[in-house]
Amino acid sequence: MLILLNSYPLLVSQNLVFRSKQAAMSGSVKVIESALSGLETLTQDNVSQALAGVDETGVSRILITDTAGRVLYDSRETGSAVGLYAFYTEIVQALGGNDAFFCRYDGQAFLSRVAAPVVYHNETVGAIYAYEYDTEQAELFKNLRSNLLRISLLIGVLVVLLGRRLSKMLTGRISDLLQAIRQVREGAYSHRAAETGTDEIAQIAAEFNSLTDRLQTTENARRRFVSDASHELKTPLAGIRLLTDSILQTENMDAETVREFVSDIGQEAERLSRISEDLLRLTRLDSGAIEEAATVEVAPVLQRVVRMLQMVAQEKDVTLHCEADPNAVVMATEDDIHQILYNLMENGIKYSMPGGFVHTKVTVDERVVVLQVTDDGVGIPDEDLSHIFERFYRVDKMRSRAVGGTGLGLSIVRDTVQRREGTIEAAHRAEGRGTVFTVRLPLAEGGEEV
Ligand code: ADP
Question: Can you give the CATH number for the domain in which 77 is found?
């Protein structure tokens, strides 16, 4: 931009000067031309006579030559060229019958040369040559040039200062952001970047902060999960340890007690294996490595689950009811549907009182398959309803342990349902005690809409 500012206006004004010079000097030459018109041949005398009446022309020097290029008149008195031959390009051109003009700026002055033929009855009888050395306009031109240079310098300095200030401001904020990123990378998840302003850097800082929020939440959940899981594994292990120590340290323990202790050890081992199975299932769901979905009819899967749970229900004196729409078809795997129904119905049985019931209904509502498991058991208090899908969350720890719960069943159900693009919710049973779990899954393409 500065180069342009320093060249374009200068070029334009130089051209303007050249053009005005051409106009002015051609005018002067015309005056002389008309003074000489009518002369058949040019001689020193008749030319001097003809020019005696011509006023000041304003040019630095005028030469008049005959057709051979010999100078007949020179306006300069000292060092007059009268009698000499002048073969300037412009004179040669003028003697050839053409007007000629040349102008240039040499850094000090504008040098202009103009020449025109003197014509008598269509014949060239000589040439007029005018020369000007203009330092006045050159001075103005020089001033313009130095002013432009000064302005450019000022702009340059301002741009550099402003640029440095701006880049310092930007790099300062970016390095603050970088600092925050490094801190979080090192594990300081509570650290946040400063969000000043509304520009792109502030937006990046805000995005980074929300990312860190999520990271912190995930990290907290992971820590809680690891500590909960180790605690859950520790309890049965401690039980086994205690029981084995008792057997080993008690002398002459009767066979009946040993059998009882060993059976307890077996139960604890079973619990351990249930927990590790559930943990494995959750880890698989977390990793996102899910089996490809296929169309699954829900009714036969429900039948199978009922058959498996019938014995448990009878033992607890809980009645199992179920009804399923044969059109209920979902995109999942049989194992997914089995897992969902089994966990929900088993919970229903586990948390029911003798004489209670667990009712499972599978219906199709427009393009949604609805699985509803209702029981009239202990129910879930309001404050726990929103937490029961969290890992290891139990309303009543003792009861859950007593009935063989791991605290992971509902997390597995929720994750499975979400993986198959469905939703799950828990609510109180509308009439009387108990809970209703409702799972909604999209009806598979080809399934019959109701
Ligand atoms: P658990 O293995 O302990 O049953 P879940 O994840 O299946 O773990 O359930 C979490 C908690 O939600 C349970 O410990 C229990 O307190 C509560 N819960 C689940 N289902 C029912 C139900 N049908 N009735 C009452 N409480 C329930």
Answer: 3.30.450.20
